[in-house]
Amino acid sequence: MATKWEHDISGTDPVRLLLIGQKRAGRSSVGNTLLGGLSFDTWGGSSTTVAHGSFDGRQLTVVDTYGWGTEENNVPKKEKLELLKSLSLCDPGPQALLLVLPLLQFTRSDRTALQKRMELLTEGVWRHTMVVFTLGDRLQGQMIQEFLQQGGEHMDWLLTKCRYRYRVLNNKTPFDRAQVSGLLDRVEDMLMENGYWHFSLHMYRRLEEEWNRREKEILEAMEKEKEKEKGRRETSLPIYQKRTALTIGNDELLKVVNHG
Q: Could you tell me the residue range of the domain that residue 25 belongs to?
């Protein structure tokens, strides 16, 4: 039976999913739910790990990145190295980054810590990022939209960054494959939006460098144009204004001379 995945460029390569997020957010459990087994250690503290599996006839490569801490001012070296390692494990790059967050309040501190980590991957990473909310059982019948509306300005910021791409998983029911199907369908939608381009840190860094170069050139050109316009205004002054300016200048010079 054909699935949405048949539209993938390669048709045979595995879908590469990168799990990111803070420690104890449930990343490893999400990986296990996606793959339908115990592929990842859920006790925490382990380094970045990769596992493979399949769903509905589609091969999956899932990378569970080392969880980051709550530091807001800087990113520890180990976290940077693990993040780069995670990208290499899904070479040439992940088709989707799944930002795992528990269904709890998303605070200013959470936002700042997240921003610091995402900045390492450039602004372009948000085009490939989708939020996966864990602890889905906490909704207890409440609609996810209602929960998000109560999330405040920081939750609004996050959803805007991710273009309102999100799914909810209940890791306590890992054999509920319908929730996995819904998540992968949303990933496929995101792939279509991105023209089936995967995330490439190298590519986005080059783009940022090019954008910065062009922005600098535009600003320099604008400054030169301002200088030219200033020169044109000065040379286009009427004759009497030029004489007045010259007279004023001479008077000032005579005052200096007369008063020694």
A: 15-199
- Please check whether residues 238 and 169 belong to one and the same domain: no
DSSP tag of 94: -
pLDDT block averages, 10 residues each, the chain of length 260: 44 87 93 92 84 91 93 90 92 94 92 94 94 87 87 94 93 86 94 90 71 72 79 66 49 43
- Please list the residues that pair with 129 across neighbouring strands: 97
Peptide bond into 94 cis (omega under 30): no
Q: Identify the residue whose tokens are 């909310």.
A: 133
119, 96, 97, 115: which is closest to 106 by C-alpha? 115
Three-state secondary structure call for residue 7: helix
**What is the distance between the alpha carbons of residues 43 and 56, in angstroms, rounded to a whole number?**
28
- What's the full length of the chain, in residues? 260
Q: Which residue has the tokens 């008077």?
A: 251
Q: State the total domains in the chain.
A: 2
Cα angle at 122 between 119 and 123, to 5 degrees?
A: 95
In angstroms, rounded to a whole number, what is the distance separating the alpha carbons of residues 112 and 71? 9
β-strand partners of 68: 22
* Both structure tokens of 140: 């207890």
Residue listed under structure tokens 């990208």: 87
- Detail the DSSP E strand segments found in 44-128: 49-55, 58-64, 96-102
Same structural domain, 178 and 51: yes
Which phi and psi angles does 134 have, rounded to 5°? -100, 180
SS3 224: helix
